Amino acid sequence: MSRGTGKQAGLLLDEPLIFERSRPGRRGFSLPGVDEDPAAWLPADVVRDPIDGFPEVSEPEVLRHFLRLSQWNFGAATTFYPLGSCTMKYNPVANEVAARLPGFAALHPFTPDAAAQGALEVVWELEQFLAEISGMAAVSLQPAAGAQGELTGMKIIRAYHVDRGRPRSKVLIPASAHGTNPASATLCGYTTVQIDRSRDGLLDVAAVRQAMDDEVAALMVTNPNTLGLFERDIVQVARVVHERGGLVYLDGANLNALMGVAKPAHMGADVLQFNLHKTFSTPHGGGGPGAGPVGVVEALAPYLPTPRVVREDGQFRWSEEFPKSIGRVRSFFGNFGMLVRAFAYILAMGGDGLTAATQMAVLSANYLRCRLQTAYQIAYPGVCMHECVFTDKGFEAAGVKTLDIAKRLLDYGFYAPTIYFPLVVSGAIMIEPTETESKETLDEFIDAMLRIAREATEDPDRVRNAPTLTPIGRLDEARAARRPVLRWTPKPPADN
Amino acid sequence: MRFLPHTDTDIRSMLEAIGVAAVGDLFAGVPEELRTRAGLRIADGQSEMAVRARLEAVAGRNDAAPQRCFAGAGAYPHFIPAVVDQILQRAEFYSAYTPYQPEVSQGTLQAIFEFQSLVALLLQMEVANASMYDGASATAEAVLMALRIRPQRPRIILSRALHPQYRQVVHTYTSGASNVELVEAPFGGDGRTDCDWLADHVDERTAAVVLGYPNFFGVLEDLASAGALAHNRGALLVTATAEPVALGIVQPPGAYGTDIAVAEGQSLGIPVSYGGPGVGLFTTRTEHVRLMPGRLVGEAKDGAGRRGYVLTLATREQHIRREKATSNICTNQGLMALAVTVFLSTLGKSGLRELAIANTTTAHRAAVQVTAGGAWRMPFAAPFFNEFVIAGAHAETRWDAARQHGVLAGIPLRRWYPELADALLLCVTEMHDADSVDRLVRAVS
Questions:
Q1: Is the pTM of this model over 0.90?
Q2: Nearest residue on chain A to B319, judged by CA atoms?
Q3: Cα separation of B341 and B91, whole Å?
Q4: ipTM
Q5: What are the sequence ranges of the domains in chain B?
Q6: A479/B330 touch (CB, cutoff 8 Å), yes or no
């Protein structure tokens, strides 16, 4: 029933599936007084039997089960989590309290606007904050995640072109882009054209000019790019795109490098998405919920999703009166609980604090870059922004790869960097320290990385067999995909 | 700034290691003309105490009292056992990323595996994914998936009784696709999708029929008939459940041969929170799993034969397949999936059923009470769960009057259904005791 050994020792506690803890007749919840026959109200043919296989566990067992599971996780709160491009900064605990205030958490989305002025004020003011940070004219907080923000942005671009006669057919995307970029563009009916980078890792104005024609709806660009480099020629690149009637979509995933330093609108961006779960400290939650607001220039504001909050005579209300809007991308108004957290974060940080966050994030990344490049080859030398990318070149003779280095880091008590991304760097190791880690933590991480580099030559098996200090070792992912087991299934009655 | 640990000494020694004189030098790669000189026009940072005070004041301007709120329509106030939030507040869960390193993410991975299992059992479907953003976008993704399963068929039939916002999101998601044809199926006099209409309109060009279950009016669709009509013509049956607590007592979508069943999971342990975050549940048949959107967690073994869990079948996904991916989804709603997992584990086999029965009973009693005076009638006769439509003269005036008494008497339907201009959609759950139902009845009388 267990993870193989079935043993428990000290703090190493085994934990089966919740279904395996189940015993007939146990319960973790009760509603006294519910002894009615549903048949009094519902026709017999629609009434379901009790769900076979649903857990039967007591409340203390539920608590223990999930507490134990939690202890098998590294989180940004427990561990340095240098996951490049994911901005694993501290998630202020005060924001968890804020989002749980009953006036927010218990507020029904169909509450009339007059009785939800506080919520609307949060939405309104957060929109203003994001507009100020990005330089954009208007913002919608509706998209539920960065990728949905991208989809929303590309729908807006499409609607803009359709309004001018035709949608156009192509979107230009640098090879280093996040996978969500081409996937979002394709979802909007565009074919994607890959733009290769120049030798210094940056977008090449000439390459964009060459690819640019009247069929190109937009260029999707990440700035700073996924190599951690600021796109030096972004203004010229944007001009080339605009001259042929195209628009510039800026992937705001790396906004943590820009706050108070430079505004995407000034770079020529027409649309961008904000990842509140990266730049604005809302927790990643083990993979969501995120929030991916979209900002646009004035000319694109009519196409933003509806409803939009408007202010009249000091009162806020939701308005659907935007006939050119692309419509809704999800129900209600967005991941409101995450918006409250981001709002609380910006209030706490202030304009000065956000600027300082960007400065310290860039300082920390460059510190890591300089200390590590003696042992690891950097993909593109020179000053970086908020993250830097190394490769596993030099370890070939030892037979040690990026994956091994990442796994060995787990043994040293660190989460791994983003690996094998961006795809344009072979064996990429992408490190983003963020501004909330102390110099001591960075030094400990550097020590671990330098030790791993030494181990790779002196004791490569140690690195290749890592991790050994985790609840389980490397899992056979190929086999898991060949014969997928995607759920627990109750045993047929005969075997019980 | 209390979240930033750098002391002046730290900064100096880090700059020295880098070999630059000032932090500003690190931004040399940003062209001069792009630099923001004036700084951000956002007030300076505030203390935790000041921020808390501000937010408490703002939250206090919202009228959020579940006992006086009889609105559902896609967001359902239910009781949440304390153990759910206790677990959600574990920073090991909430501060982790998508579990790319399985050896140090087994907590998240096993919880998602349990989530997939519970969701599959609840909807009685073969396979569930690791979650979507919400019920509406899950419905849109289900439509896109149906079009992938039936690539030669461009037509999607959406019931008019499907949640209006879900329909709107389907429209947005499919608007770029050239050869998709969305058709609206009318509802009949009993509040259910008109099966006679379906019989005439489901054809060999139809990829899928999409129904709410329960539908927007709270009514249980006749999935057996709709499913048979769809399948006879080679089309798929897709269902979207906005209120999955219903499935604790009514037959699940899987009992009727549904091909793709999605749901909004908010009512399973997540506060309404002004409409988000919730979580999309997404299930289908095993044969279609490789055309499914979103993350999937599967069982695996390590070198020592120990059981563990990993993200699997990633070759469907954007980070591998890029423009050929089944969806652009990346981050989903992990922590909300955990809330559903803890909630369903706590309620368990007997608790979920009791909760569903409590909702059925309370809502049906309230319906009898509201319509007893004769001012209101129930226009739809089909069976319902905890939500129902009432109609009567001056419905919106009376709804306004109830507001003045602090009661949110459901939602006027006119904004989406001009043909139901005199109707309100009411939701009654276990949160409403006899007193609060009495208050509702008085407020709308």
A1: yes
A2: A179
A3: 17
A4: 0.97
A5: 66-79+349-444, 82-342
A6: no
